[in-house]
Design brief:
Catalytic activity: a peptidoglycan chain = a peptidoglycan chain with N-acetyl-1,6-anhydromuramyl-[peptide] at the reducing end + a peptidoglycan chain with N-acetylglucosamine at the non-reducing end
Distance between the termini: 123 Å
Organism: Litchfieldia salsa
Number of domains: 3
Helix content: 40-55%
Strand content: 5-15%
Order of helices and strands: HEHHEHEHHHEHHHHHHEEH
EC number: 4.2.2.29
GO molecular function, one term: lytic endotransglycosylase activity
Number of strands: 6
Oligomer: single chain
Largest sheet: 2 strands, antiparallel
Number of helices: 14
Protein name: Endolytic murein transglycosylase
């Protein structure tokens, strides 16, 4: 005999109530779990923020407020803010180079001068900055070294040798010394990356010795004191174009490589942005750059004309055989060529021809280019 309808209803109510209580219990557990997770995340974030705050607060304070120790600190000519901050940290004058650098940037502090300073670990950031602006500097320039644009590292070594007591061999040994290069990479980490150590790169520091005139205030500076201002100047120049580099997806190494190719192809009268555009246009269609200076660099020679047999040299730097950029710069590039590498002209040309009078002629097709070869080169011979 079946149960009465009233009993069925009562039974359903009980089941419904039990399920409701069960769901409420599960909801309470879920809420507890969510609350616990939220508290853990909140505590973690608070710990990170609090720890970061305490770290930065500590880094802004003197290294040792009670120290009377005097430290002789030398800031080389051409040192970038990053290099200065690193020197101060290494000498124990500031706790954290990055914090000091960002502090000076936030406060818009500039005008730091090269020279020799007597600093102490008890100095505040304000005192350090004040000293770096007014420190004792050797006033008389003893000699200067001028590094022209478009010079290769071996040529720069010769220029330095002519102005100092160092031999070309000593200078090149220093410029290729792995331990010294590692020290420079630590000093300029944003500029000198692992790209310079690639197995196909001829000289790691090729293209990183910026063309400029460098004054020296003592008779016999060390090789480090001669080389590092050139690296520091490159670091400064590259640091000023970070936004444009990001837009072009350049690293410092690839930017200096492109700029060096433009520099070596340019003449006094040429518009470098047009040569830059030709290189970009070729790379867009997967066409080799086919630039003669890369062949000469591969051959290790300097001559007026590249022969057809030279174009066949099996070398990573030969852009007739290999597509894209060379493994590294083939010379140092000036600010104009760096700017051209970042801002190519709006032209469609795939070819250019440098005539003997210094003018450069551009063509969109090979036939047009060959016509100009006949017009501007063969008639001049």
């Amino acid at each position: 005999m079946s149960e009465s309808p009233n009993k069925d209803k009562e039974k359903n109510k009980i089941n419904h109530r039990e399920k409701l209580l069960e769901l409420q219990g599960e909801a309470k557990v879920v809420r507890k779990i969510v609350l616990i997770i939220f508290i853990v995340i909140l505590l973690t974030i608070s710990g990170i923020v609090g720890g970061g705050y305490l770290y930065i607060k500590s880094a802004l304070e003197p290294v040792d407020p009670n120290s009377n120790k005097e430290v002789e600190v030398e800031i080389p000519i051409g040192s970038s803010p990053r290099a200065i901050a690193n020197i101060l940290e290494e000498q124990g004058i500031v706790k954290d180079a990055k914090v000091f650098r960002y502090y000076t940037k936030f406060r818009n502090e500039s005008g730091f001068q090269a020279g020799e300073y007597t600093l102490t670990p008890s100095m505040t950031f304000t005192e350090i900055i004040s000293n770096l602006k007014t420190g004792k500097i050797m006033e008389d320039i003893v000699f200067q070294i001028t590094i022209p644009e478009g010079k290769q590292i071996t040529q720069i070594a010769k220029i330095i040798a002519e102005k100092t007591e160092f031999t070309e061999e000593e200078i090149m040994t220093k410029l290729t010394d792995q331990e010294y290069i590692a020290q420079l990479m630590a000093l300029y980490p944003s500029l000198l990356t692992n790209e310079i150590l690639h197995e196909n790169v001829m000289y790691p520091l090729e293209g990183y010795l910026f063309p400029a005139t460098y004054p020296f205030y003592k008779t016999n500076p060390t090789l480090e004191e001669i080389i590092e201002p050139m690296i520091a100047q490159t670091d400064k120049v590259i640091g000023d174009v970070q936004g444009e580099m990001a837009f072009r997806e350049f690293t410092p190494h690839t930017l200096l490589t492109m700029a060096s190719l433009i520099e070596e192809e340019a003449t006094a009268q040429v518009d470098r942005d047009k040569i830059s555009a030709v290189f970009y246009n070729r790379m867009k269609i997967d066409m080799p750059l086919q630039t003669d200076p890369t062949v000469l660099y591969a051959l290790g020679e300097h001559k007026d004309r590249v022969l057809y047999k030279d174009l066949e040299v099996d070398h990573p730097y030969n852009t007739y055989r290999n597509k894209g950029l060379t493994p590294g710069p083939i010379a140092n590039a000036g600010a104009t060529s760096i700017k051209a590498a970042l801002n190519p002209a709006d032209i469609t040309s795939l070819y250019f021809l440098a005539a003997k009078d210094g003018t450069v002629h551009y063509s969109d097709t090979l036939d047009e280019h060959n016509q100009k070869v006949n017009q501007y080169l063969r008639t001049e011979e």
